[in-house]
Design goal:
It is a single chain. The protein is 46% helix and 20% strand. It has 296 residues and is α+β, with helices and mostly antiparallel strands. It folds into two domains: 169 residues, Sandwich (Jelly Rolls), CATH 2.60.120.10; 104 residues, Homeodomain-like (Arc Repressor Mutant, subunit A, Orthogonal Bundle), CATH 1.10.10. Strands 9-1-10-3-6-11 form a six-stranded mixed beta sheet. A five-stranded mixed beta sheet has the order 5-4-7-2-8, with no helix packed on it. The chain is elongated, with a radius of gyration of 22 Å.
């Protein structure tokens, strides 16, 4: 998990208050940005296209690594007015009077060179109800955010952004440890004791020339059973996962421009810069130098 977060380098790109009063509803089209919502007070109903409505109440947290089309309203079944993501405060329903629903919503930004790969390893959504998180550190972070939202102290935006970044990390931790239903991906693998041992071995020594048989031995499984379970839970074969992770590390180093090709090749297990360049070009379709210049 630390490896994923280090490569994603998440930051709160936009955060804004969302308030509403009376009967209201809005509909958003899908957009390729990680979205989040924290319910500060009141409740609302969230509906993803083709799914049953989900009730969100005070203290709930929802993270969408990639935001699908959805409707949000004061009650289920409302046909929402078309809406688009905005960076400023939003008011729904009756424009005057004290709001009966208040939330903090917005989006995170991730390091772009590896975002598609890393986000594919996460679940489609992470929903932490207030009833589950209230007595935990996650719940205390939610309370602090709500308290900060209600103030107008100097540095408020900076504090909110840093709290949101901490909350994102807590949410990813929470999902890996406590979620009852996590789809195929790295978080599912981390919850499987046998696969977790193999994943830990890969991440601890990405330079090693791992074979499926060696990883199966680490997992305490037969080669065939390990390969089948890894593919089902992680969504790709073990050696493909290793190759993807190596290239993710390489792309990050190239984008930062902090290491030579020889050093990158050594760090991720290639015998030479030439061998690394050949593998990189075959997988990414361009030479490492060209990728570095474009990313820079």
């Amino acid at each position: 998990m630390s490896d994923i977060i280090s490569l994603l380098r998440p930051s709160a790109a936009v955060s804004k208050p969302i308030s509403a009063k009376g009967r209201w509803g809005v509909h958003y089209h899908a957009h390729d940005a990680p979205g989040f919502t924290i319910i500060v007070s009141g409740e609302a109903w969230l509906t993803f296209d083709g799914e049953d409505p989900l009730r969100l109440e005070q203290g709930d947290f929802l993270l969408l690594p990639s935001t699908p089309a959805f409707s949000l309203g004061s009650e289920p079944g409302i046909v929402g007015a078309p809406a688009a993501p905005r960076s400023e405060a939003v008011r729904h329903g009756e424009p005057e009077g004290e709001a009966d629903f208040v939330a903090l919503g917005g989006s995170f930004s991730f390091e772009r060179v590896n975002a598609p790969l890393l986000l594919s390893l996460l679940p489609e959504r992470i929903h932490i109800p207030a009833s589950d998180g209230r007595a935990t550190r996650f719940g205390r972070l939610i309370d602090l955010l709500a308290e900060e939202c209600a103030t107008d102290y100097p540095g408020k935006e900076l504090i909110l952004h840093r709290m949101l970044e901490a909350l994102l990390v807590e949410a990813l931790r929470w999902s890996s440890l406590a979620s009852r239903s996590v789809p195929a991906g790295l978080l599912s693998g981390m919850r499987d004791p046998a696969l977790a041992r193999a994943l830990q071995a890969i991440h601890a020594d990405v330079r090693a020339s791992w074979t499926v048989a060696e990883l199966a031995s680490v997992a305490g499984m037969s080669r065939s059973a390990f390969s089948a379970r890894f593919g089902d839970v992680l969504g790709c074969p073990p050696i493909e996962y290793l190759a993807r992770w190596r290239m993710a590390i390489a792309k990050d180093a190239l984008a930062r421009g902090i290491k030579t090709l020889d050093r990158i090749a050594e760090d991720i297990g290639y015998e030479s810069a030439s061998a690394f360049s050949t593998a990189f070009r075959k997988r990414l379709g361009c030479a490492p130098g060209k990728f570095a210049r474009a990313a820079g």
